[in-house]
Amino acid sequence: MKDRFNLYRFASPATFYPLAGAMIPYFAAVSVVFGLAGLYLGMLVAPTDFQQGEGYRIIFIHVPASWMSMFIYLVMAFWAAIGLAFNTRLSGMMAQALAPTGALMAFLSLWTGALWGKPMWGTWWVWDARLTSELILLFLYIGYMALTAAIDDARRADKAGGLLLLVGVVNIPIIYFSVKWWNTLHQGSSVNLTKSSMAETMLWGMLLMAMCFWMYSIAVAFMRVRTIMLERERNTDWVKTLLAGDKI
Amino acid sequence: MLEADNLECVRGERRLFAGLGFKLEAGELLYLQGRNGSGKTSLLRMLIGLLPPEAGEIRWNGEPIKRLADEFRADLCYLGHLNAIKEELTPLENLLAAARLADEEISEDDAIDALEQVGLAGREDLACKYLSQGQKRRVTLARLVKEIRPLWILDEPFVALDVAAVDWLAGIISGHLQRGGMAVMTTHQLVNIPAGTVRELRLG
Amino acid sequence: MFKIITAVIGRDLKLAMRRQADIVSALFFFVIVVSLFPLGVGPEPDLLRKLAPGVLWVAALLATMLSLPRLFADDYRDGTLEQLALAPHPLGLVVTGKVIAHWLVSGLPLALIAPVLGIQFDLSADALIVLTIAILIGTPALSGIGAIGAALTLGLRGGGVLLSLLVLPLYIPVLIFGAGAVDATVTGLGGEGHLSLLAALTFAALGFAPWASAAALKIALE
Fold first, then answer.
1. Which of C78, C85, C221 minimises the CB distance to B86?
2. How far apart are CA B149 and CA B104, in angstroms?
3. What's the CA gap between A105 and A91, in Å, rounded?
4. Is B50 within 8 Å of chain A by CB?
5. What DSSP element (H or E) covers B79?
6. Is A158 on the interface with B (CB under 8 A)?
């Protein structure tokens, strides 16, 4: 993906800006291709589930969204660690650029989880371990976005947000474990939103959709990071010449 | 010896200074001058180790202060804009607490003597919230009377002091320089410090 | 190493004693919130008994949240926090002292009052004992984790609410095991498992949180 020959060169916003801009259309296109393939498999090819009928097909959105919400948080925490360790500006910007998409994935996962549950169990919400953990993950995303929004100084916002992400990443296993414990202890319903055995096509469908969401996230994060760069570096020469001349 | 090497400061999105360096030896006073917003306070915060510089290094007796950490802070005394006193405590309690935190135990007699020197005799046991602004500032300055740490970093120490107090403080700083200490100071007023070599650094 | 921790605890306790109003109001907040629940859900004893562990714990979380800004904000405003950061000791040790002092003044009183409130909910003697122990063990973790949030939000607008947003998700494991311990006692399963996990959480929090808070304080002090 990125040229690894000389990392520090690409840590400079001025270099990364045009590179990101060039890559966005490719990621967007690949995302569409994966999405079409995934939806084709998920909607048309995968067999009808004999327990849940056609309604189960929403897992082709729900599961990839859950995976992505977790994955994006880890990527954000990774960039936070890099930013705190090496004091690079771009890392903080990437983390902030990813946050809204991660939150969106979490939100999407919660909604599709609810839509899936309703026809099956008659309630719009169910406190199973995974949905509850997803809700808490959404809170973590919102906390991060609220904190970075409340700090005016961009560098302080990056560092404080980064620290919060690292604290969050350490806590996520603890929170997940405690929620599972809580759920099994209060086990009235045997609610289980995961499928124990899956036809191969279903798995492929979910993987393809996950790839679609992943490529989409990268494309959108690149778009957002470019805006953040322009905003933060508006007083530097490269931005001034860029805005005066042609757009890349 | 305090040494600053190729320091760069970026605040918000502006570069305040770059390539800044100086050396300070025992008995010397560094006058930091410049307009408001030129980066004086930022430079002081770099020297005390609270603000990491964008580039460059600060060394104390040859070692980078980042590596020295606690050791460097043991030699450092910083007075900023804020008084750094707790209003609920008395002047005496404040002085004793400050000394304890700095690992410098001073006796109660010494503390009372210091407070007397700044004109707070008789008020040592009154909670600081009952003192006037000027008196509170004097509690802060009283810390310098018995201060033995070699490096003093003072951010506008003369602000809001009357003439007699200005002379007194100048005397305290001189005494410190004469004993082999060193000081970095920002001030808008030109104050005459009788002893010690004075260097100037202008920012902005 | 212990000298600086005890020096900081002594200082913070002395300050707390001269500002008792803050502490007492947080305690009253706890009492009031707990009393709101029966008013909201009805006085039926069976229902209240079932709700009690959760209600008491959530109220304890909220009362702790209220007292968190006090941890660093006053020192930040008058410049003493800076001086603490410039002391020739690791800032993490200073924060450990502050967290312990904070617990002594906010968590410990909660643990002492909770059994009295538990009686209002008709909890058995066993449950009351486990409740007290659980809150005693769990509140230091709340002070520790809360310190991270307090340090991150130092000096920011919307401080209190933002602080809650950051810290409450991190409090969830403590809530689950703390309330779970009492629940398990009531249903006869025994709360030892929960209490051990709670103790583990507290140890982990006290070991890890002061250093994360110190890092956050340094960011705020730049």
1. C78
2. 9
3. 21
4. no
5. strand B76-79
6. no
Which residues on chain A are in Cβ contact (under 8 Å) with B14? 235
| Residues B188, B143 within the same domain | no
What value of ipTM does the predicted structure carry? 0.90
Q: Quick check: A2 pLDDT over 70?
A: no
Chain C, nearest residue to A169 by Cα = C170
Q: What is the enclosing helix (H) or strand (E) of A16?
A: helix A13-39
Residue range A150-186, pLDDT digits in tens: 998 888 999 999 999 999 999 988 888 888 888 876 6
Q: Give CA–CA dist A85/A73, Å, rounded.
A: 18
The tens digit of pLDDT for each residue in B32-65 reads 888 887 888 889 999 999 999 888 999 999 889 8
Query: Which residues in chain B are contacts of C1 at CB distance < 8 A?
Result: none
Q: Residue C192 CB: number of other CB atoms within 10 A?
A: 12
Cα dist. C84→A71, B71, C17, C90 in Å?
39, 15, 20, 10
User: Rounded to two decimals, what is the model's pTM?
Assistant: 0.88
Q: Do A178 and C153 touch (CB under 8 A)?
A: no
- Count of domains observed in chain B: 2
Whether residue A28 contacts residue A22, with contact meaning beta carbons closer than 8 Å, is answered with no
> How far apart (Å, rounded) are the C-alpha atoms in residues C195 and A129?
21
B21 and B46 fall within a common domain: yes
Concatenate the DSSP letters of all residues of B91-124 into one string: HHHHHHHHHHHTT----HHHHHHHHHHTT-TT-T
Tell whether B80 is covered by a domain. no
The residue range of the domain holding B165 is 1-75+151-204
